[in-house]
Specification:
Length: about 240
């Protein structure tokens, strides 16, 4: 995974798809780009950032012995970020008798350009990433590590009369299952034929039938499909 130079107070989030094709790090300030091509620098660095790296411990209870550890599997990492998106004020302001009509006022600890709107840029982008379950890359420099992740919860709103937008973001680590070449999906679905619903993609179909969207190639091979496009109401072989 490529590493970019960040200072210890910067947290940058972008989509995994965009990250894999990036040629240098550039943060965005508006929503003119497609949502999967945007890069966000959190404007106000959170005061703390704690990661939950838990494991699922399985034990076996033995008579006259007690519990015996059998297996410990690492769970997906989880973490949360709480801070605020500052209100943008492009109106003229005065300091020491001088007119700063063409300047943008912002907090001295604001890491952004000062032009990003808290609702139409930050909240809109994060909500779309969450609702579409888009895999992301969470970049920070604390110990030189990045996380692939997805947003599991996004709470936001106002707490004062200034117009700042306070938020709480919760993330969960994202892992992609890499299947061996030629590996086929196995299913106990009661029928050999599946009829996709309106709006259902071949990846959705594979996840429902085989438990993982990566098995969509199994469906393509069984039905001699040359492209991953499918039609609602049409029967497709799944075994």
């Amino acid at each position: 995974m490529a590493q970019y130079t960040l200072n210890d107070s910067q947290i940058v989030i972008t989509t995994l798809k965009h990250y894999e094709n990036m040629n240098g790090l550039r943060v965005d300030s508006d929503n003119s780009k497609h949502v999967e091509e945007r890069t966000i620098l959190l404007p106000i660095s959170p005061s703390d950032l704690m990661f939950d790296e838990s494991s699922d411990a399985q034990t076996l209870k033995l008579m006259n012995y007690g519990e015996l550890p059998v297996n410990i599997n690492r769970k997906l990492a989880k973490w949360s970020v709480s801070s605020f998106f500052p209100k943008r004020n492009n109106k003229a302001y005065y300091k020491n008798g001088r007119d700063y009509s063409n300047s943008i006022w912002k907090y001295t600890f604001d890491l952004s350009s000062g032009r990003e709107d808290p609702y139409t840029f930050y909240c809109a982008t994060l909500l779309e990433w969450k609702n579409k379950q888009i895999p992301l890359v969470f970049m920070f420099n604390t110990w030189g590590n990045y996380y692939n992740c997805q947003i599991t919860s996004f709470k936001y709103g106002r707490k004062d009369g200034i117009g700042n937008v306070y938020y709480d973001l919760q993330f969960q680590e994202y892992k992609k299952l890499n299947l061996e070449n030629g590996e086929k999906g196995v299913t106990d679905y009661p029928s050999n034929i599946y009829y996709p619903d309106e709006g259902e993609s071949i990846q959705d179909m594979a996840k429902k039938i085989y438990g993982n969207s990566e098995y969509y190639k199994t469906i393509m091979n069984l039905n001699n499909l040359t492209s991953p496009s499918i039609k609602a109401g049409v029967g497709y072989k799944i075994k």
